[in-house]
Amino acid sequence: MKKMKPIRIITVLSVLVMLSIQVSLLSQEETGSKLSKQTEFITVEDSINLATDIYLPKGSGPFPCILIRSPYSKNNFEINGEGAIRQFLKRAWVVVVQDTRGKFESNGIYEPFR
Q1: Cα dihedral 52, 53, 56, 57 sign
Q2: More confidently predicted of 12 and 113
Q3: Residue 95 β-bridge partners
């Protein structure tokens, strides 16, 4: 039998490690499945409606919750923060993402830092 050169062995092992990492990551996340959310308008004390997306983990609660309020559109967070949302859901957290007052789908006047 012919001996493999050390560089070839290292290359083959590297490829196998990378493939196993990819398989592991794919099995951890539900890639391709769309996030399930419900959109609500939360009325605050001065009758302003704040647009709010709610992502619920599987199973029955009660669950801890993380609230993310953003002046940059809750819809952008779903696109750019999808990985973060999935990680919280995987750990059985409710994720609530809300447009701040006066921005995007929320009513009212936007007054930053107030």
Answers
A1: negative
A2: 113
A3: 55, 66
> Which DSSP string corresponds to the chain?
-PPPPHHHHHHHHHHHHHHHHHHHHHHHS-TTPPPPEEEEEEE-TTS-EEEEEEE--SS-----EEEEEESS-HHHHHHHTHHHHHHHHHTT-EEEEEEPTTSTT--S---TT-
Global pTM? 0.69
Residue type at 50 in one-letter notation: L
CB atoms within 10 A of CB 96: 19
Amino acid 5 reads K
Q: For the beta carbon of residue 53, count every other beta carbon within 10 angstroms.
A: 21
pLDDT tens digit sequence for 67-89: 999 999 999 888 888 999 999 99
At 13, the amino acid letter reads L
Ramachandran sector of residue 71 (left: φ over 0; alpha: ψ -120 to 50; beta: rest): alpha
